């Protein structure tokens, strides 16, 4: 019984701050704490803010491409871990792959930045830091999450279908394309979404690895939040919260329909 | 293993070597370089000056210690809150379990920065908490809630609570209720049964959850920057300002190397627990 009370308290603790931010985004007053009436003006001001809109565009491009790269690499890694048995260096492979999951972000960010700087001094013809380096940084961070999700799915999946297809004469590539891929599709969708959200949200690694022309949305939010609470950021927060929730609902419905 | 499979594995190995292994080698190398003006702001002469500064300047030692302390206290609080939550979810009906689990995981998917931002609005001197307490007549003047070490710990618990609940739930869910019934039949009181059966059997979940909170919390930057005060000392903040404010790359690399050395034991521990968990 006590455990249930604490569970209720814990859930309230998790959701109350989000609900408060969403509520105040519709507040007419600029003084964020006093409620003076319902208004949507902060949403209009948000969409009129050139700097925020530009940063949002960059963030979406980076999140989309890096999530796609991370899904391909994470799929290969997760499949290898689940199906290739105890191949040589498996423990090191798994350990390195999981590093970004637990590594403090400041270390990952600094390490990747120094890598990009070293690469550029060795190969001066490479383009400078910008959207490209952001994509590489985010893909290497998020592929670990995709790999974990794919590995769990593949490990829990019987080999029967793949073996049957192979017995019937399908080449390995065909088996993978027509049997394995549809079977692990829900894991790929979940992994892609997670990678997308993580990239969209990342501040620390983006601050290290972005260039002067590629300020991302979290970087703009961070510099604004340092100066205090603003109703425009409340509106942005509300949109971000609702968009992620909507994405998750859609993903949940998709995977449910597939598993039926 | 097929040829295509081997090819895919090689590609992933290459990627890992290139973006995960090589960068850390470079960090190590630059931590022994000399800081100088210019682009990039470090030079070739090998020097130990960054490490010498780490030892001689108490700021760094204090920052490491205070980071470890803050992360430890926050981890204990997250365990005390997360364990009953996971326990209650595991005791629910199948239908409720998935709903409650979803509710615990959902905040993890929403923007981390926004979640920390939300607490600024609650904890400010004119924020919701102080306003409510004042209007209830419980306090006369606003309490200093934000820009304190307590606010940093709160932020860590809030952010990482799902990481604590999930591994605990995975363990508690597998627990066979027959064991507790047997204990009750043999006359054990519920608390004794909990201490003798539930707690030992959930031990790997406790370790995994605690490490998942503790390790990233030690190097946390955003939470102490936004919720902490000017005197909040965390090593993630120090690394950030060495890099962005002082432009001392060898110093920030050295700070990272020592931080990694401190965390390597918990990281290895987590990975061995993780592998055992995956196999069972």
SSE layout:
The complex is a heterodimer of chains A (260) and B (280).
Chain A: H1 2-24, H2 41-48, H3 50-83, H4 90-102, H5 105-122, H6 131-155, H7 160-167, H8 172-201, H9 204-209, H10 217-226, H11 231-259
Helix pairs in contact in A: 1-11, 2-11, 3-6, 3-8, 3-10, 4-6, 6-8, 7-8, 8-11
Chain B: H1 3-31, E1 34-35, E2 42-43, H2 49-56, H3 58-90, H4 94-109, H5 112-123, H6 128-135, H7 149-174, H8 177-185, H9 190-201, H10 203-218, H11 222-227, H12 235-244, H13 249-279
Antiparallel strand pairs in B: 1-2
Helix share of residues of chain B? over 70%
What CATH architecture label of chain A applies?
Orthogonal Bundle
Query: What gross morphology of chain A would you assign?
Result: globular
CATH class of chain B: Mainly Alpha
CATH architecture of chain B: Orthogonal Bundle
Number of helices of chain A: 11
User: How much of the residues of chain A is beta strand, in percent?
Assistant: under 5%
3D architecture notes:
Chain A has helices at residues 2-24, 41-48, 50-83, 90-102, 105-122, 131-155, 160-167, 172-201, 204-209, 217-226, 231-259. With 260 residues, chain A is mainly alpha-helical. Chain A has one domain (40-259): MetI-like fold (Orthogonal Bundle). In chain A, helix 2 packs across helix 11 (231-259) and helix 3 packs antiparallel against helix 8. The longest helix of chain A is centred in the first third of the chain and has 34 residues, at 50-83. Chain A is globular, with a radius of gyration of 22 Å. Chain B is mainly alpha-helical. Chain B has a single domain (57-279), classed as Orthogonal Bundle (MetI-like fold), CATH 1.10.3720.10. Chain B is built from 13 helices and two strands. Chain B has helices spanning 3-31, 49-56, 58-90, 94-109, 112-123, 128-135, 149-174, 177-185, 190-201, 203-218, 222-227, 235-244, 249-279, and strands spanning 34-35, 42-43. In chain B, strands 1-2 form a two-stranded antiparallel ribbon. In chain B, helix 1 runs antiparallel to helix 13 (249-279) and helix 8 packs antiparallel against helix 9. Chain B is globular and about 75 Å long. In chain B, 44% of the residues are buried. The model of chain B has no long low-confidence stretch (mean pLDDT 87). The interface between A and B is large, with 82 and 85 residues.
């Amino acid at each position: 019984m006590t455990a249930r009370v604490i569970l209720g308290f814990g859930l309230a603790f998790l959701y109350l701050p989000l609900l408060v931010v969403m509520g105040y985004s519709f507040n007419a007053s600029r003084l964020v704490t006093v409620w003076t009436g319902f208004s949507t003006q902060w949403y209009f001001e948000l969409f009129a803010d050139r700097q925020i809109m530009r940063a949002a565009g960059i963030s979406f491009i980076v999140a989309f491409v890096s999530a796609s790269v991370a899904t391909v690499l994470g799929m290969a890694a997760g499949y290898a871990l689940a199906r290739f048995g105890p191949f040589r260096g498996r423990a090191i492979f798994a350990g390195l792959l999981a590093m970004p999951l637990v590594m403090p972000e400041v270390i990952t960010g600094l390490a990747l930045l120094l890598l990009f700087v070293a690469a550029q001094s060795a190969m001066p013809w490479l383009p400078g830091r910008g959207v490209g380096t952001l994509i590489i940084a985010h893909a290497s961070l998020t592929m670990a999450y995709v790999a974990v999700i794919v590995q769990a799915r593949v490990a829990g999946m019987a080999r029967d279908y793949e073996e049957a297809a192979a017995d019937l004469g399908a080449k390995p590539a065909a088996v993978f394309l027509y049997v394995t891929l549809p079977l692990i599709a829900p894991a790929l969708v979940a992994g892609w979404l997670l990678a997308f959200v993580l990239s969209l949200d990342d501040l620390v690694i983006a601050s290290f690895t972005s260039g002067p022309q590629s300020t991302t949305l979290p970087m703009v939010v961070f510099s604004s939040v340092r100066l205090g609470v603003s109703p425009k950021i409340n509106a942005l927060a509300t949109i971000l919260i609702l968009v992620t929730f909507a994405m998750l609902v859609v993903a949940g419905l998709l995977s449910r329909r597939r598993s039926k | 293993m097929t040829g295509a499979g081997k090819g895919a594995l090689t590609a992933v190995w290459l990627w890992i070597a290139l973006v995960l292994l090589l960068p850390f080698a470079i960090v190590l190398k630059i931590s022994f370089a000399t800081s100088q003006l210019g682009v990039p702001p470090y030079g070739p002469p090998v020097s130990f000056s960054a490490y010498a500064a780490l030892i001689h300047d108490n700021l760094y030692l204090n920052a490491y210690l205070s980071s470890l302390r803050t992360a430890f206290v926050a981890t204990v609080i997250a365990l005390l809150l997360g364990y009953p939550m996971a326990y209650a979810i595991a005791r629910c009906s199948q239908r409720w379990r998935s709903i409650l689990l979803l509710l615990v995981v959902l905040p993890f998917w929403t923007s981390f920065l926004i979640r920390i931002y939300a607490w600024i609005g609650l904890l400010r001197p004119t924020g919701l908490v102080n306003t409510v307490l004042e209007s209830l007549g419980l306090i006369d003047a606003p309490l200093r809630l934000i820009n304190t070490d307590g606010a940093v710990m709160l932020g860590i618990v809030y952010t990482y609570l799902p990481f604590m609940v999930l591994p605990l739930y995975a363990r508690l869910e597998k627990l066979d209720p027959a064991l507790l019934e047997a204990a009750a039949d043999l006359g054990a009181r519920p608390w004794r049964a909990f201490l003798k059966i539930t707690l030992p059997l959930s031990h790997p979940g406790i370790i995994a959850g605690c490490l998942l909170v503790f390790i990233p919390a030690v190097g946390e930057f955003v939470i102490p920057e936004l919720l902490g005060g000017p005197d909040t000392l965390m090593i993630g903040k120090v690394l950030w300002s060495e890099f962005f404010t002082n432009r001392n790359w060898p110093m920030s690399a050295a700070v990272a190397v020592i931080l990694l050395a401190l965390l390597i034991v918990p990281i290895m521990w987590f990975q061995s627990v993780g592998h055992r968990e995956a196999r069972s």
